[in-house]
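Hey forum,

I'm writing up a methods section and want to include a predicted complex as supplementary material. The small molecule is zinc ion. I've pasted the protein sequence and the SMILES. Can someone with a working setup run it? I'll credit the forum in the acknowledgements.
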Amino acid sequence: MVLRRVLHLALALGLIAGGSLAVGPDPARAASFTDIADSKFRADIEWLAAAGITSGCGDGRFCPDGLVTRAQMASFLVRMFGYSAIPSSDPFDDDDGNKHEGNINRLAASGITAGCGDRRFCPNGIVTRGQMSTFLTRALGLRFGAGNDWFADDDGNKHEANLDRLFFAGVTRGCGTAAVCPNGSVTRGQMAAFLHRAAAPSPIGAPGMSELVTHPAPITVQIPGPARYRGVVFNADASTATLANRFGTIVPRAATADRTAVVSGVRYAHLIDGPMAGSWVKVDGSLARAVGRAPRPPACRYDDILTGRRAYEQHAITLLDTIYMLPSTYAPTDLVDTGGLGLNSGYKVRTVVAADLAAMARDARAAGAPLQVVSGYRSYATQQATFNYWVSVGGYEEALRASARPGHSEHQLGTALDFTSLGGAAPWNYADWAATPAGSWMAANAWRYGLLMTYPRNKSAVHCYDYEPWHYRYVGRELAAAVRASGMTLREAIWAAYGP
Ligand SMILES: [Zn+2]
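Reply by user p_vandermeer:
Happy to help. Structure tokens for the complex are below, copy them as they are.
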């Protein structure tokens, strides 16, 4: 085997960086096929078609279960990597007249194949997974990951090093625990998946990486809470790994990882679930838990500091408490009446809340826990009037406990609501509204619809307000789930992940 490596990385990187896949004969043919609806590789096949790498097997079909021949593989690779002019050289005798001959010659001229011996290419031979790993390793210029012996069933196979490289790059996932089935055939559907992953291999190793271990079974990484984690970025050019502070993502307490790596003496785990899936987090040597403490919000006090994230699109991570506030000019313009959302009318929320709020109201009703809104959007002016009212009733100290000072209320976001039971009393008139059917349904389920109880019981020391089982703020389903999994209050979570 000739191991000359011709790197068409520039092209491969063009695919990655630009996201543009204007290669292949006819991207316009990127229509869906009639026989892929049940294929687990459907998305990959559609990607392949959109990229112009396949036009199917005829009659609007893709034949996902058909086996890939070496000649077909040559054409797939040529279309994907864009090897240009057909060379004048004709290194193989057994492909003469084959419709893929031109592409086979391109592949040979690029050093991707040396044939199957004696001036033969074996064009009709079925591609094995081992052969495919070598084709792709050369085409992608993969350099890292060999020698780790991740699979038990390829020991001594001549493609073992390339199977390991391909696994490291995330292009193959093996065929079972510690198995990669090197002599197994490759279906057209599987090929679509391999090529799709090869278009954006991740991660590619780096010189600074002293150890990388891929775990056949996912490992659990314990994470102490939402935090700012130091992550590692693996550059796509196969040359460097760089350290970067990765802010702004909240992860659950336990995440699973499939790979760990040591870069410059620091161990990282590659997360495969949760909102941070696909990224790497720093872990301690034992892998028992991620390193790093969630930054704590400041002790409760009264202050008037403008909150940092004030764009309307940032509402979910806008920190509001007794310290941080919105300006008086913060007034979202996309407010809708709750009456159109399956709830009582007369209160307003932002449209971003509408669909999930309506779904929640419908499901609460179906569960025998119908809801009633008693407060929605409150303008700065309304807060000012409300606070002044409470000052007039009981003085400033009393007002502080009863009402947020203007600018400090989450209701100004247009994403916070107060609820009670349909037809019930004001929620604060119950001993504990969370003990009612509607209140307990909300405590258990609101997060599923993206709403969080901002001021839960026994957490006043961290959220700085009295227990308010009726007050919910919409942050979106993903963030709500992550915050709930973290066990933190919203104030702690926002501070930990985003700061002020
Ligand atoms: Zn409220």
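Some notes you might quote in the supplement: Residues 9-127+185-198 form one domain. The first helix runs from residue 9 to 18.
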